[in-house]
Every structure is written in structure tokens, then in C-alpha cells.
Amino acid sequence: MSEKLSSSKRIKEIVSKYGFRFTKSLGQNFLKDDNVVNDIIDQSELTKDDIVIEIGPGIGVMTESIAQKAGKVIAVEIDKNLIPILNETLSDYDNIEIINEDILKIDLNELKEKYFPDKKPKIIANLPYYITTPIIMKFLESNFDFQSMIVMMQKEVAERIVSKPGNKVYGTISVAVQYYAKPMLVLEVPRGAFVPEPNISSSVLKLVPYEDVLVNVIDHKIFLRTVKGAFSTRRKTLLNALSNEFNKDNVRKALELSGINPSERGEKLSVEEFAKLSNAFVEVEKSSS
Ligand code: SAM
Questions:
Q1: 52 phi and psi angles, rounded to 5 deg
Q2: Index of the ligand 1 atom closest to the CA of residue 31
Q3: CATH code that applies to domain 8-209
Q4: Whose CA is nearest to atom 6 of ligand 1?
Q5: Ramachandran angles phi, psi of 55, nearest 5°
Q6: In the list 46, 58, 113, 149, which could disulfide-bond 207, CB 3.0-4.6 Å?
Q7: Taking the chain (289 residues) in consecutive chunks of 10 residues, what is each chunk's mean pLDDT?
Q8: Residue nearest to atom 8 of ligand 1 (CA)
Q9: From 55, 73, 123, mutation site for ligand 1 pocket: most ligand atoms within 8 A of C-beta
């Protein structure tokens, strides 16, 4: 029986057999700690009934453990040099589909039609740090139905995503994510759990989309402009900060319509208040045009 995929020895063997070179720009830090792999996968509460989309399988460390617990794994890996490796490391499993694509370019609805038309998948990802936010927002904003997302990312980004109004790291990404899903910090992962060791600390976040949205947003573009405007200059009042994004008279009217104090700071508004305020902008802009 060969060594586990998550052992340093096996990773070294694979790297040397295939002459694989880690690409820093693709965030290639592979997990070498079985306990961490299991802890991440446990958060997904997998059963044989589940379909999992794994983003960035690397050499397949998490993919193998997911395949043992789930019904099927769709593993999307951008690096073509990893495909022959994955074909070897995962050859014992007939419930894994390896797709050589960029997750940011893939059409999620086509993926669903092809592999799981009647199921809501679970997502598991140990993401490259530089594209964490676009990947999460792609899944949340595309109306793609999924059960949960367990995602490893830079610790500071995870802290921003879960933070609440009034916290100094509460910002655009907190509101943008919390509009769609409840984020929970579930794990901290030491740098030593990876090869090569990254120079940042990592945390695992669990995102569970709400069954029903908190407040229905009429226009998502205006919602995002409202949030971005409110956080554009954190020390300014909402009236002044939002005037960077909207006409100042309309800002006054929208704040009044939504019952929000114009001298409040953006960092104090809840997700529901941002949604209400952005709906007020839609009303005000309609009546002023
Ligand atoms: N899951 C493996 C593990 O835990 O050992 C590897 C994680 S590594 C941090 C990130 C992986 O995502 C790499 O294999 C990288 O090639 C892949 N990747 C990077 N950008 C990607 C993208 N846009 N789409 C799909 N995979 C990507």
C-alpha cells in the first residue's frame, strides 16, 4: 500500500516523478496534513448522496478523501500539468470527474446540466489567495443553487467576510457575502500544514446560502454601488461618502426614505439597512429621471 497522498514523502515522489514545478501565481500550496484534510471535509458533512465540486484539487489530496465519502466529485483544476498527476493519484476511484478549466470561466449552469441536473452540490475549495473573492462572488451572484461552501482562504480575508457592523474590518466584502449567505469561521490552519509553506496564515470558512434573502434587493448594481460608496471613505458620514457615488440630493432623499441618519458611518449599517437604502436609491433615481 503506497503512502497517503497527504504525506510529504508521497508529494515529493509525485513532484519528482512528473518534474512538477509549483506555480506561485496559481497559489499552489498543497496540504500535507491529514488531520487538516479531514477537519475540512468533516465540515461538509458528506454522505454518499452528495455531489461535490472541488475547486483546485492540486495533486488530489482532498479529492481522494472527498471521493471516499461523497457520491461524486467534480474536480476543476486550471493547471494542465496537474491533470496526468490527478489521473494517476485518483485512478482507484470511479466517482471523480477531473475537469481542466478555470473555475472563473466555467459556465456553472452547463456544469449542472451535465453532471447533476437534479442535485444541489456542496463546494469544497482550498483556494489560491488572489482569487478567493471573485470565486466566492461568482458562486453567490450567479443564482447557482448549492448547499454549502467550505473554503480555505487567507485568515484576514475570512475575518473580513464574517465581521459584523461596527467592527473595524467590516466592509464591502462582508456585506456582499452576508447578503447571500451566512459565513462561519470553522478552522484555523497553520502554515506548516502545506508544501511549500505559504507566508500567510489560513482559515477555513463555511458559507451556507440563506433559504430566503434577508431583504429583497431590487437592483444588484445599485446595491453594490451603495455599499462601495458607503465604504469609499470610512471616516466620512454616509451623506458625504455616498455622494462620491450618487448625486448628493438623491443621497439625502434616499437616506430619508430609508430612515437612516445621514451623519451615520457606513461601517455601522447592517446588511438589511444597506439593502433598504439601495432600494431607496432605485426609487429616488426613478423619480428624478
Ligand atoms: N486542493 C489542493 C490541496 O489542498 O492540497 C490544492 C490547493 S492549492 C492552494 C490551489 C489549487 O487551485 C492549485 O492546484 C491551483 O493550480 C488551482 N487553481 C488556481 N487557480 C485556479 C482556477 N482559476 N480554477 C481552478 N483551479 C485553480
A1: -120, 135
A2: 5
A3: 3.40.50.150
A4: 58
A5: -100, 125
A6: 149
A7: 75 90 90 94 97 97 96 98 96 97 96 95 92 94 93 96 96 95 97 93 96 87 95 90 94 96 95 96 87
A8: 28
A9: 55
